[in-house]
Each structure stands twice: as C-alpha cells, then as structure tokens.
Protein 1
Amino acid sequence: MTPPPDNPLLDLRDRFPCLDQTVHGKPLTYLDTAATALKPTCVIESLAHHYRLVSANIHRGVHTLSERATADFERARTTVQTHLNAAHSHEIIFTSGTTDSINLVAQSYGQLAIGAGDEILITEMEHHSNIVPWQLLRERSGAVLRVAPMLDNGDLDRDAFRAALNARTRLVAVTAVSNALGTVNPVAELTREAHAAGAVVLVDAAQALPLQAMDVQALDCDFLAFSGHKVFGPTGIGVLYGKNDLLKAMPPVKGGGDMILSVTFDQTTYNELPHIFEAGTAHIAGAIGLGRALEFVNAVGYPAIEAHESALLDHALTALQAIDGVRLVGTPAQRKGIVSFLVDAIHPHDLGTILDGEGVAIRAGHHCAQPVMAHYGVAATARASFSIYNTRDDVDRLVAAIRAAQEIFA
Amino acid sequence: MNLSDDLYQEIILDHSRHPRRYGCPLDHTHCAEGKNPLCGDEYQVYLTLDDEGVVRDASFEGSGCAISKASTSLMLEQLIGKHHEEVRALFVTFHDMVTNPEADHDATALGKLAAFSGIWKFPSRVKCAILCWHAVRNALDGHTTASTE
C-alpha cells in the first residue's frame, strides 16, 4: 500500500497560477494568506467572464446584459447565504470588506441602539478594524468601550470577559480567529454569554472563514463580517451578515442609488433589505467572484481544509520550535492557520527581507493589531500563515530560510 | 540578488550589533525623534552644535531593525566635525544614493555610508536607512519628530 500523499490537496496547487513563479530565483513559498489569499483560476476567470461578456450594471435597465448581471450578482448573494447558513438571502449585505462591514454596524446599529453610558465590549486580540470603528462610535455617542484582556498564552481571559459583561453592555465584537496569533475564540459560547447579558454580538470571521465553517444560525451571532480576498475571492468585496430583525430596524448610513425606491426633494423612500445598505453601484464582478470562491471552498470541503491546515500547522509548530533562537509569540490552546514568532537578535523586518530573498513570503510587522504587540512588549513579529495550497515543503523552506537568516546575523 | 552583498554587509551587521555613538548625552543643543509607526522603529537623536554651527557631539538611542540602527550609527560617526550646512548637503547626497540607482553620488563625501548604495533594490527598506537622517534634519530645523512610513 502506498503511503498517503504528503498533501491530499496537492493537485489544488495547480489551481493557483500565482504559485507558478519564482521570486529572486527561488520557487515562491507563499506564507502570507492571513494578509490575503491567492486566487484560484476559477475566481480569476469569473471576473474576466463578467467583464468580457456581461459587464452591465445591476438592478436597472431591462436589457439582457443587465438582467444577466443582476442574476449573477444575486446568485452570489444566495451562495453566501448558503455558505453561512443564513435564514434569508436579504440578511447578506455586500460591503467592501470586513472593515466596511464593521463600520456599517458601528454606524447604523450604533445610531439605533447605542447611547451615552452604554457599553461596547471587544477583546485585546482584535485587529485595528475591530477597534477603531468602536472608538469612533464612542466619540459620537458617549458610549464606553471595554476591552476583555488576553491571557499570556494568547487565549481570551474568559473570566474577565464574563466579568466585563453587564446590563449596560449593548454590543460585543469579537474575532473568531486572531489575525496576529491564530487564537481560536469559542464564539458560540461567547455569544451565549453576551446574549444572556442582553448584548448583541458581532463576529469578525475574516481569518476564520477560509479555514472553518461559520454557521450563523448555529453560532446564533447577530452580525458576522468577512472579506472576500481572504477566502480566495477578489479584493474590495466583503459581506456583512445581520439578523433580519436587527437589519430591518437599522437606519441606512450611506445614501445614493440602489438604496432607494423613489426620490423627490421632499421625500425619499428607501429600498428594502439588503439594498438599503448597498448605496451606489456595487462591486458587481467582485461579488460574483466571491460567490465563485465560496463554491470553490465548498468543492474542496471544510473537512479536507481543516485536516490539511491542522496537519500543516502541527508540522510548522514542531519545526519552528526545533530551531534554537526561535520563540513563538502566543501559544493558544486552540490555534488556526497562523504562527507569530521572533528570532533572537533578528528584527522581524530584517527576517522578512532575508526570507523574501529565499522566495519565502511572510508578514513582518504589527499585523494591524498593535495592542496584541503591546501585550507581548514587542513592536513587531514575524508571522507565517497557512492555507490549502501550502505543503510540508513550504514549512521546510521556511525553516531553511530562517536558518539562513541566522547565519547572516550569526 | 545577494543579500550579503547588497544589504547585510559586514559593516552594517557590525554597526547593528554594536552601534557606535549609542546613548543619551548629559547635554545636547538639538534633538529629535525618528519614528516609523508601521515598523515600530523608534529612535532619539541628540546633537550638540558649537557656536559656529559645527557638530561637536552626536548620539542616539532607541530600537529598530538592523538597517535603521546601522544607518544611524554610521551616519552619526560621519557628522562629527561637520558644519550643519554640510550635514544637510550630505543628507541630500545620501538620499539620492538610496533612492536613485542612477545617482552620480560623491563616494568621497559618503565614506562608509556607501555601504547603503544597494538599498534602492529594497524599496520597503529605504525608509529604514533614511529614518534617522530625517530626525537629524528635523533636529537642525528645530522640529522634534520625524516619521517615515
């Protein structure tokens, strides 16, 4: 019997044309999926197909191409709905990305339900786009922004989280997977606890959705945000899921075409959900490409994705810890896809440059999560992140490149 | 591309490991902060100019990558004894060298700073090499903060 292949998804690498190149004469080892994922051919082709053969605007005009574009766009919405197991397709709002989605909630739900003295609870491991919109809301409304701390291993301090919830907590915004550390948060349990305190919950699924199924009804979260480009889709497109009852009550925050039914100078009648939150011409090709990306994810299947990612991560953790002078930043009990680390006497930016010279792309910096860096008393870390197209060879090349950096700095 | 030749030359590694002119002086006439919030690089540069405007002492402290630290260390060594107008002129020459491969820079004026002549091949690292030069210029201009992003 032949041993199982190194990577059961190996043939998937052929679907990602970007992998087929060298960087500084070395084969590309792409370990920066947490920043953005590479795109499979089917997504690239869906964008090209739209622009080449359809191109028309949506929700207006009776001509054939416009109707085709509208059908493709709305089919993408249904694909997202199915992917998240949302009850209604109008609970899926297309945005420009996770940041835009979170800002929409902060502005609209903030205007509806959060006032002076009300509390918003986030966690210490949030990235900037799940911090700053709430600070802006705090400035507008006089609300209080509370932060549930992390433990030193990078897990959420659950006791502190529970203690921070109270009768004034209106909204809890929490990431499902930390973009800096890879920590997996128990969002279903956090949601239960937040609901018990009477708060609504926004889940930032930007890092989670490429790696695990996010069933909004099972999680029972009130809002969920994610970006297309991290889940193999185009940049500039993302999604806000919101529960029907909440979205229905929320005021629009952007005015313009598509979000209205009729306009006079005296009176404007707003459109129905989801269009009321989609003013202006949408990123039509982006939404269609995102739909295609999610179909691709489903074709691969989350069980295969999770098995691959977890085997690769185990290999990476073991291999990195075997290098003298490498220190992991954060050792969460449950981790997905992401490893932050430091190499003794080598600044992460120097490491990033030397690794790039070996064809290995990692992120070096604060990962838009400066409070996480502050927790560990560092300005930056090196971060490797893994996806379905990565192999054990990629991990081994990372390790070899780190050793090469150590030789230069020895 | 060879990183050891183009970027991490022995002199740069040496100055990053053992920065010269490192520390906070008792007195100074000019000082400024050099900060790159995106990298987290953060330095304080101190200059002492005499009545003629000549740099009599220069030192720095702070933290950052090897390139920013070595660049600051090598720069400050060169500034001692220079009139502030010469310092400004050297800034322009250095800036040209690290951003423009075609620049016809004066190798004599740059001295050991020529070690950074290959850095234009690494656009994201140019700001590391130039960070504390901005701080020095700002200090001379009477500003206290320099930032590169």
Protein 2
Amino acid sequence: MDFLNLIEDFEHIKEIDYRFFILGFGISILFLILGYVFGKIAEESHLKSLEKGEKEFRDILLFSSKSIPESGQLVKEPFVMGMVVISHDSFSGFIAIIRKLLGGEIKGYEKLVSRARREAILRLKKNARKQGSKAVYNLRIETSSISKGQFNSIVTVELFAYGTAIEKTPYENPA
Amino acid sequence: MILSNTEMLPGKKIVKHLGLVQGSTVQSKHFGRDIMAGLKNIVGGELKGYTELLEDARNTAMYRMEEEAKILGANAVINVRFTTTSVTQGAAELLAYGSAVVVQDI
C-alpha cells in the first residue's frame, strides 16, 4: 500500500515537472522571439544613426601613427576618448550557441563588435569636435568583454577608443 | 596639465623626466544596474549604465594620475596607457599610467 502511494507521488511530481518544463520552454521561446524582433529593430536604427553620424563627422581625420607632425598644434585638452558598452539580443546568442557546435564564423558577434567599434570611434570624434579639433593622432582601440552569460552566450563587450587631438593636420580635410 | 598618448608633443620639448605616474580604481557593478542590464540582454543594445560607470571609472583613474603628476611638479603626462583587469567576478580594476614630464615651448 505504501509502495503504491509512493508511485503515485512520483507520478504527481512528474506531472508538475512536465508542466514547468512546458512553461520554461515557452518563456524561452518568447524571449527568443522578443530578442529577434527588438534586436533587429534596434540594430537597424543603430546602423542608421551610425551612418548619419559618420557623415556628419567626416571632416575629422583619424591616424593611428605614433608621431604628430611638427606643424600640428595641440588643443587645450588633447586627450580624447570614446567608449560604449553594448550587448546583443538573446536570439543571436542562441544562434551563436548552435554555431559554436559547428565552428566557423559567427556573424552575429561580428556585427555586434563592429557596430560597437564604430560607435566608440564616433563618440571619440564627437569629443574631439568639442575641443575644436580636426585630427586625432595615435588612435588606439581596446576591446574588453564584460560578461559571458549562460553557456558563454550573452556577450557584452566594451569598446574604448582614445587618442591625441590636434587642431589640424598638414593634410587636407575632406569637405 | 597636458595629457597625451603620444611619445612627443608637437611644438614642445621635454626638459625633465619625472618618472612614472599612475592612477587606479576598482569598480564593481551596481546591483540595480545589473538587473537592468540582465533585462537589456534580452533585446540587446547599449547598456548605458555600464557605459557611464566605466567612463566615470576611467576619469577617476586619470584624475588620480594627474594628481600624482602635479605633486611631482609636472606640467604634462605623455605616453598615457590604460589597462583593465577583472579582479573578481563583477569587479574590475582600471589603471591609467604614463610618464610625467616637464615641457617647454620651443
């Protein structure tokens, strides 16, 4: 009798687990869909704003060379920087998990990091313009990953760009 | 105080080297910000809280470096570099360092 009761209890637990499983699965699917839809929208609008910003700040030249030409004049506060912390949506994280099994290029992460880099450089240019600068020398870019969520799937990266701003270069700035 | 990540400054010459100066800060993530960031991770995009946090931390590290240079009597710090190290889970050390120098207009 006791034994039968026990089996019944087990079945009871199983049923609950099953329901929770369905619920959990549903929630994850919902998050994936939300991630896909809102992620796409956010990405599109970010790319648009990046293009607009890059057009606006095209007259500021960036150089990764170490030395500044002698004719260059430093601005008042020559150290300029720009940074951004960005994370991708849950859908591309899910895709990346599958992609990792097969190996190869992970396009979602690639897009994320390149977007972040463009944004960081754009912010650096914004700061440079505030100082009245037309050129930034010795530009350096650093990337650091901030969090790696479950299965290393959630990727949050920080992009940090810095350089030395001078008033203008001996070269001609594009209009 | 002139800060620069280049080795030489245009139109200026270095008259005195005063050695290495550095400034550092250890920052941890704010609990509330962490929850918000977790939610933001679903849809992706910029985590403004973290950007601000890191920006503040970098400025603090740079400010401390500048203060050290001032004590030494420098008027410029050249070759400024940054490093980031994660000390424990959820906390990072930001270090700014450079050479303190006295420069003069040529």
